[in-house]
Amino acid sequence: MPRPRSTALAAAVLAVAAGTLTAVATGPATAAAACENGYVALTYDDGPNPSTTQALLTALRNAGARATFFNTGQRVQQNPGLAQAQVTAGHWVANHSWSHPHMTQLSAAQMQQELSSTQSAIQQATGVTPRLFRPPYGETNATLQSVASQLGLREVIWTVDSQDWNGASTAQIVSAANSLQSGGVILMHDAYQNTINAVPQIVSNLAARGLCPGMISPSTGRAVAPDGGGSNPTTPPPVPGACTATYAETQRWGDRFNGQVTIRAGNSAITSWTSTVTLSGGQRINTTWNGTPSWDGTGTVLTMRPNGNGNLAPGASTTFGFTVMANGTWSAPTVTCRVS
């Protein structure tokens, strides 16, 4: 590969992250050229996680990359809004068992329960029925493969282990990703800040090698062009009527802090929206503004809707806010948005 082409590919990814995609990729021919050496799969296990999933989605969006999330059923049940946020952002969701056990130590009936319960949880949260399954710890046998197949699932392991679960630094995770080859799949996890920090450099390095993040084929278990190609493969597709939620802390005192959520419409107008704010630890919200609030039975999940006209033009935004009593926990709430 001549150096000028590699430099151009890296510039293209940086332009995607900067939101200037139309200036560097004008159609399928440009996309194909950027991915001339093939596709790899970025995968993240063990989510969704209230403390990291939203930050990981932001990092992927800023890098213009799509990924596959192998979620556990328990965590999807606990955090359905985050599972929906993965799908809304243009990513793929897949099955990683219900409780992350050593699957090969289970009976066939127990295996079936682990997988089918997770299928149901993901379908209920996102409307998507997974077609891929990754066994916890990569442990598998013929019985498990048969159970997965009966549920319409393709088993997917990995070709590169990032070792993020083993304390790998951001630089080590980036280095592991550099060994990916066309069709390859890298194992990462939705739990570590080092993994989130590695996203921009991983995507940039892939572009410099003529590789793009793609989807995992349910037929072969290898990375391929998203949905057969055609559109720019490293850019999440426009989702009609979608919205995003972004959180920022605006003030802090000795026992409380103010938070603001920005709701932004996607590539088409919306007429209303619903946002969820999930608190951590013993936090409680005692004041809200610029919206109509309601709470779940535990008082830890705020649902906010417009207090008037919820119309937003494409790309337009609005905000609402709240005061959180920290009660010793200062972590940022998790926020999501869906069109309602």
TrEMBL record:
Residues 38-214 form the NodB homology domain. One of its GO terms (cellular component) is membrane. Residues 236-340 form the CBM2 domain. InterPro entries: CBD2, CBM2/CBM3_carb-bd_dom_sf, CBM2_carb-bd_dom_sf, Glyco_hydro/deAcase_b/a-brl, NODB_dom, Polysacc_deacetylase_ArnD. One of its GO terms (molecular function) is polysaccharide binding. Residues 1-25 form the signal peptide. This is Peptidoglycan/xylan/chitin deacetylase (PgdA/CDA1 family).
